[in-house]
Amino acid sequence: MSSEQRDRMVEAIACWKLELPGSRERLSSIAADLLAEGCEGPATVEMASIYSEESRFRIDTLVENLISELHLGPELSDGPEFPATRWMCGAALAGEITERSLSHWVHSQFDHESDSEILNELAALDDEYDEVEFTGAPTDPIRSKIRILASEFLGAAQPAVAPRTESRAT
User: Fold this and answer.
1) Does one domain contain both 94 and 54?
2) What is the pLDDT of residue 128?
3) Within this chain, do residues 71 and 107 fall inside the same structural domain, yes or no?
4) Which of 29, 75, 91, 99 could cysteine-pair with 146, CB 3.0–4.6 Å?
5) Are residues 148 and 86 part of one domain?
6) Residues 106 and 43 in one domain
7) Is residue 165 part of a domain?
8) Boundary (domain end) residue, out of 76, 105, 127
9) Which residues of 18-54 are buried (b: 16+ CB within 10 A; e: fewer)?
10) Which of 49, 76, 103 lies at the terminal end of a domain, its last residue?
11) What is the pLDDT of residues 34-83, one digit of tens each?
């Protein structure tokens, strides 16, 4: 399995564990790509062929089997937040999600208390978005900053990232 496919699967598993939209389809698609590369373990085969209505319980079991089969435990040992953030940053840069979605998600996962300065800056930009909703100021400068930070996050060495421990009132 290529390192790119390995990273994609780790990110997909992380997104699934955090219940991000599209995770089920992403897991199945990446598993199919792995099959095309010659990874033919039972969990990979099953994940590649799941139905769109497959039960969450069944997919959770398959995900745990995939982690074991593909030896992905070390990449997920610190939790799913960091790999999911990598996916979210890539999705924002690719135009699959909005910059606001990225900053809001980072803010909800890490608040302003991450060990990563980039993530703290993204959370602060979510606050700036909240302010411009009331003032009517343009969002282009904020969107541009988010894109720069997303690029920096993807290019940075893996920071020690710990999610917030207390829940945020909504």
Assistant:
1) no
2) 93
3) no
4) 99
5) yes
6) no
7) no
8) 76
9) bebeebbebbbebbebbbeeebebebbebbbebeeee
10) 76
11) 999 998 899 999 999 998 888 999 999 999 999 999 999 999 988 899 99
Helical residues (DSSP H) of the chain, grouped into ranges: 3-17, 23-36, 42-48, 56-69, 73-76, 81-93, 99-110, 117-135, 140-155
The reported pTM is 0.80
Quick one: tokens of 136? Answer: 């009517």
Q: Which residues contact 123 (CB under 8 A, 6 or more apart)?
A: 103, 106, 107, 110, 111, 112, 114
Do 8 and 72 sit in the same domain of this protein?
Answer: yes
143 assigned to some structural domain: yes
Q: Please report, as a single letter, which amino acid is at residue 61.
A: T
pLDDT, the chain, mean: 87
Nearest by Cα to 106 from 40, 159, 59: 159
Tell me the per-residue pLDDT of 72-108, one tens digit each, with 9 for 90 and over: 999 998 889 999 999 999 999 999 999 999 999 999 9
Residues 6 or more apart from 32 whose CB is under 8 A from it?
Answer: 48
Which amino acid is it at 82? F
Q: What is the pLDDT of residue 48?
A: 94
Q: 61 and 90 share a domain?
A: no
Residue 159, pLDDT > 80, answer no
Number of domains in the chain: 2
**Is pLDDT of 170 > 90?**
no
